[in-house]
Each structure stands twice: as C-alpha cells, then as structure tokens.
Specification:
The protein has about 325 residues and is an alpha/beta fold. Helices cover about 40% and strands about 20% of the residues.
Length: about 325
C-alpha cells in the first residue's frame, strides 16, 4: 500500500492537522506501507520531525492531481482544500478526507469525522463514512504515556500544564489564564507552553510558572500533569486519552462543536471562549478544579473511557478494505 498524507500547519492554522497525520504515518509504517507527506509544517516542526524518524518521504507542495500519481490512497486533513475527489481518483488513488463537522468537509471515498458527537451529515455521494470518537487518531507517544499514567498519584502542589494553540497570537490568552490561576490563591507549579511572550502575573506564595515554546517533550509534561488547560482541539483529545483532568477553552469557531460536546459528556471543565477569560467565573471554575480531587477523578475517568486513541488503525483497516475491494 502506498499512502500520501496532505496537511498544513502555520501560526494561524495551528499544529493539530500535522499531529493527526503523524499518527496515521506511524500506524501505516507499522503495517509496512510506503508513506509520503506533502505540506507546510511551519509552527509544527517539532511534530513533523517524526516523519524523518519514520523514513516518510517529504514531497514539495503541488496540486493533488500531480501529487496523487503513484499512490493507492491520499489522506487529506485540510480545511482550505475544496472538492478534490475527481482529481485524486483520476490519478488512480482513493481519497480519504478528515473533517471536523463542517470544517474540511468534501466528498470522498472514505470520510472520517472523529468528533465526540458528530452532527447529521448531508449526502454528497461519499463512500465509507467513519464517524465518532472511536476514529480519533493519536500518536504512538500518547498511547505509551496513557499506560505510564495508569499508576500515577497526584503531586503536591498540583502540577498544571497550560498549552494553547500553536501560534504567538495566543500569548495574551495564556496571560489571561495565568492570571485566573493566580487568582485562585491556591498553590501550584505551572508549565505554560506557548509561542511568543505572555505577560506573567505577580504570583502568591506557593505558586510558580515556567514558560516555554511547544516542544517534543510535551508528552513528558503530560505524564506528570495533575491538571491541564487547553483548547478544545487535538491536544484536548490527547489529554482525554491520557486521563488528565482538563479545563477547556474554545479558541476558534471550528472548536465550537467539540467544546459543547465535551461539556455535555462531562469530559471537561468549560472556561468559555478566548474573549471571556477575564471573567471571574473562570477563576471560580479553576479553583474548583484544583481544589476538588473527586471532580478531577470524575473528569479523568470519563475522558479516558471515551477516547482510546486507536482511531488511526480503524481508519486504515477501512482504507485497506476499500482498496482490496477495487482489485
């Protein structure tokens, strides 16, 4: 099997699409498939370095009509590309399309929407529909860390990890979250992963904050994190899989459906949107999360039982079946 992955990252797009296609690359390579990647990885270099470790071929970005030639399947995880099914099929490949509700939606031979509660989807002539959280594709390092956390006990003071988006534009949002954490007046040690330079608040006794850019050691932090604060995107699903009690923020419009579903399913403490983080309710919610061990336990159990992270293999099984059916 020959698989092409097409996705982009940037300070505005974020790194989530690259994280997902890395997960597909790992599982496809483990099956002995030939894998190539085409896309911009600005702002996600620390994730894209995994392609070199896997010996995934890096191709220059060009129209899919030419990129798809020589591949059995093309997996597209991209909101900016339109209906490309005809050109991918004309090149002899099946199209696998990753969508998040209406974002990135296009007709495809295999459609994947790993949303927590996918909304009804209008018929557009697509073939296999794989919809639901069981199709969440998470990287191997997440699955290994899940096993490591199984026997972990909370630290004292609690270790909090704040990680939001991939771009420097979220530095001010991180500043608001750190102020809300400070205003809980509770002790904690916090790692804030963000590009740019957030404004650090004056802290009270027993509180400390370290700031760094996102890096490959993120999962090492998650392995020892007692509470996380993140956006309602791919990183949130990683934290669910790990069983980390999490407070979620809706940063951008495409996270709205996932944010609402996470609240409805009891997987997270909701902090609202990026524009409302200076509200006192945010401090109240964080104080409750940091002070209530039973709440943290309930969130962790609900999240880890909902997201197992094995979706890449389920999707690749469906792709293989589709390809074998053509022969």
């Amino acid at each position: 099997m020959r698989l092409l992955l097409r996705a982009d990252a940037s300070p505005t797009i974020g790194a989530g699409h690259i994280s997902r296609v890395v997960a597909y690359a790992e599982r496809a390579v483990s099956r002995g498939w030939e894998v190539a990647f085409a896309g911009d990885t600005d702002n996600a270099e620390w994730l894209a370095s995994r392609f070199s470790e896997l010996s995934v071929t890096r191709l220059p970005v060009s129209p899919l009509a030419s990129l798809a030639s020589g591949f059995d399947a093309v997996l597209v995880d991209h909101y900016g590309l339109g209906d490309v099914r005809a050109e991918v099929n004309a090149a002899g490949a099946v199209l696998v399309s990753i969508e998040d509700d209406t974002f990135g939606r296009r007709p495809a031979d295999v459609v994947v929407d790993s949303g927590l509660t996918p909304a009804p989807r209008p018929s557009d002539g697509s073939g296999v529909l794989l919809r639901g959280v069981e199709f969440t594709a998470l990287r191997d390092v997440v699955l290994r860390t899940r096993a490591l956390r199984a026997s972990r006990t909370p630290g004292s003071p609690l270790h909090v990890t704040v990680v939001l988006g991939g771009g420097a534009e979220w530095a001010s949002t991180v500043s608001s979250l750190l102020r809300a954490l400070r205003d809980t007046s509770l002790p904690f040690t916090a790692d804030a992963l963000v590009r740019g330079e957030p404004e650090l608040p004056s802290l009270v006794d027993g509180q400390s904050v370290r700031v760094a850019a996102p890096h490959p050691g993120l999962l090492d932090l998650f392995a020892t994190t007692d509470v996380a604060i993140t956006a309602a995107g791919v990183t949130f699903l990683e934290l669910c899989c790990l069983g980390v009690p999490t407070a979620a923020v809706q940063l951008v419009d495409n996270q709205a459906a996932g944010y609402r579903a996470a609240l409805d399913l009891g997987l997270t403490t909701g902090l609202g949107t990026a524009s409302t983080l200076d509200d006192r309710a945010v401090t109240t919610a964080l104080r409750e999360l940091l002070s209530d061990a039973s709440l943290r336990s309930r969130l962790a159990k609900a999240a880890s039982s909902t997201v197992d992270g094995l979706g890449a293999d389920r999707v690749l099984d469906a792709v293989a079946a589709r390809l074998n059916g053509r022969k």
